[in-house]
Every structure is written in structure tokens, then in C-alpha cells.
Amino acid sequence: xxxxxxxxxxxxxxxxxxxxxxxxxxxxxxxxxxxxxxxxxxxxxxxxxxxxxxxxxxxxxxxxxxxxxxxxxxxxxxxxxxxxxxxxxxxxxxxxxxxxxxxxxxxxxxxxxxxxxxxxxxxxxxxxxxxxxxxxxxxxxxxxxxxxxxxxxxxxxxxxxxxxxxxxxxxxxxxxxxxxxxxxxxxxxxxxxxxxxxxxxxxxxxxxxxxxxxxxxxxxxxxxxxxxxxxxxxxxxxxxxxxxxxxxxxxxxxxxxxxxxxxxxxxxxxxxxxxxxxxxxxxxxxxxxxxxxxxxxxxxxxxxxxxxxxxxxxxxxxxxxxxxxxxxxxxxxxxxxxxxxxxxxxxxxxxxxxxxxxxxxxxxxxxxxxxxxxxxxxxxxxxxxxxxxxxxxxxxxxxxxxxxxxxxxxxxxxxxxxxxxxxxxxxxxxxxxxxxxx
Length: 438
What we know:
Oligomer: single chain
Radius of gyration: 27 Å
Number of strands: 19
Order of helices and strands: EEEHHEHEHEHEHEHEEEEEEHEEEHEHEH
CATH architecture of the largest domain: 3-Layer(aba) Sandwich
Number of helices: 11
Strand content: 15-25%
CATH topology of the largest domain: Rossmann fold
Strand order of the largest sheet: 6-5-7-8-4-9-10-11-12
Shape: elongated
Largest sheet: 9 strands, mixed
Helix content: 25-40%
């Protein structure tokens, strides 16, 4: 039949894009220097027919009216916001790809879901990036502990499949698919060939056992899912978990869903004790000022098909239009967190009034354009660090005492009582009065 190999094929090591001619830049992901040659066997019709015959199942085709659809009924995870995006829950045998930036909360979300599902049957959580002890620490913090939740720190595919045989789970979570290695397959972990082989093997097991499977995936710098583009086509559901690491809001949206809608959005609030579903997240987007404030207006935006009320702000009551503003940090540290807004505002007010801040004081809080001071996460932890360094005064957003965490089980941090004054403010004007003494 001639040569057993076809003409050379060139493939991108990042996204799996293919071409018959080499190029320095990938035509799919536009990455430079990632296209390499990969010879692909050219199978004859006879060999293809023989392989196809070997795969023929002994089960006869049946009329669609005789197929029992109850076997594919979605089962709720217990997290209402996640079930909303999935279309009711996890379908037996479905493979879900959950992608998101590092630190956004993917592992926390799946630990909480796994603990809830484990109330109905065994759940196997495979971690390839952390040890079992590290996962246990996070599980203790978010309250995701159960006798039916099994943890396995493995990176080899054959070992993972052996764990599936031993545990017989109803839900398999692999965190992450880029860390699993298929023995005997060329390529580095996380490469195109490895990811494709690992995903194909896990999908085969999921379909054979009617095992719901969730794969965690990384994203690239531009927010795209890392690995070959074929990975997204292989799986049944593709979810994207997103959110600013300096904010409390997290959103999970479906980019692909064979069993439900792709225009639903689930909202979560990330706190000290894990993720909590937000049935009405609009409160996060509306300032809590009293009365009418010039320069603000409410609107209704749609995230997918979910309406969210948000507030648009255009200005604050600060007269600096005729002045140049120069701001810098000591030591060249780069501050991008919204929590530093209040300190910047007080520094500007201090310079404009030519008054120094009264005494050593720390100020934390996000400032809106209307001048209101918004709550931020981790206030108790920040106050504790300030107290450790000798500070006795702090200006913080009002309502922070409702924040609960490991350091403040009773609501208010013990460190706060050691400071001579913790001033809660709702606006920049109140903060200026507290900082500048009038």
C-alpha cells in the first residue's frame, strides 16, 4: 500500500492547530515558536475497516422510543448556583471541564460540591497539584469534610483509573487535567498529546461507568482555556469560573453545554469560609449611601439571561480639576487592590488641605466615585496585622464586624479590641474628618 506514513504534519504545541506547512507563528492561538513537525500514520481502508469491525458493540440498535432517558437525568450537586448553570445538576457519564485563572476558587468550589454529593455516594477527588494534607486543610476551612469524600494525590493516569476501580465513585474530580500523565505516550505533562490522551481515557471510563466527571483546566494569559482546542470539543460541558481576586464576587458561566442552556450565570461570594451562592447578587453592585447622590444612576444589565441591577457613577465631590496629582508608593511596591482606595483618597485630601493625618493610622476600603466607602474582604486580618506592627488606630468601612473568619469566630476580631480606635466610616467625608481631625 506504499509508505505507511503520510506527508509531514505540523502542529502547535499550545492549542493543537494543524497545518501542512511549517510557520513561525501558530494560525490558531497566534503563539510564536510553538509549531513543530508531527508525523501521522496514514491508515489504509483495509486497516480502518478492520479497526472499525473490532469496535462494533454486540448490542443491537433499538428504536428511540425504547431508550430509557432516566439514566441521563441530571443529579443536583447541592450548590444551587452551580446547578443553575449545569441545567439542573451533573448528568451521569457527562464530562465537565471547569476552567479559570489560578486562585479564583476552582478547587474550593469543587471541594464544596464534592462534599455535598458525597452525602449520596462516594466521591473521588484526585489532586495533581497539591498533597492530600493540603487539600484536607482547605476542606476543613470551608467545611467540606465527609467520610464518603476520598482524596488521592496522583499524577499517573493508570493509578487514577485504579483508584476509580477501588472507590467506585459517583463523581470523579480531577484537579487538574494538565498534571495527569499517560504512561507510554510521548509529550510533556500538559502538552497537546498528553492532554488529548488523558481526556480520551477519562471520557471512556465516564461513559462506560455512567460516572460524572469534572476536569479542572488552566487558562492562558489572554483568558483562553489552555491545551488543545480539541479538548473543548471532546467534553460535554465547558464552564468558565471567573472573578477579580481582589473582589468577593465569583461567576461561573457555561461556554458549552450538551445538557442545558449556555446563557445562564451562577454567582458566588468568596469569603473566609469558602464560597456561598448568591441568589440575588445585585446588592454587591449598588452603593449603600443614604438619599440621592448626584452623578449616580441605576441600570439593569444582563449576564447571560440573568438580570443584575448595577450602579453607574460618574464623579465624586472632590475639587482637584485644576491641580496635578502625583501618587507613588514607598519602595516601589505596586498596589492594584481596591482596598487601597481610601488611603489614596485621604493622602490627596491631606495634600490639598495641607494638613497631616492625625497620628499613626491605617486606612482600608474601596471608594466609589460618589464618595462612598465600600466593604472589602479580610478587614479583620488587616487590622490584626496593623496591631502587630504597633498601630493603634484604623479607619475601615462600616459593617466589617459582620465578617467572620478563623481569627474572629465571634464576629469581631480580638485584635480590634487592642486598638484604641477603630473608626467605621461610610463616606470619604467621614474618613477625612476622622483622619484630619475635623
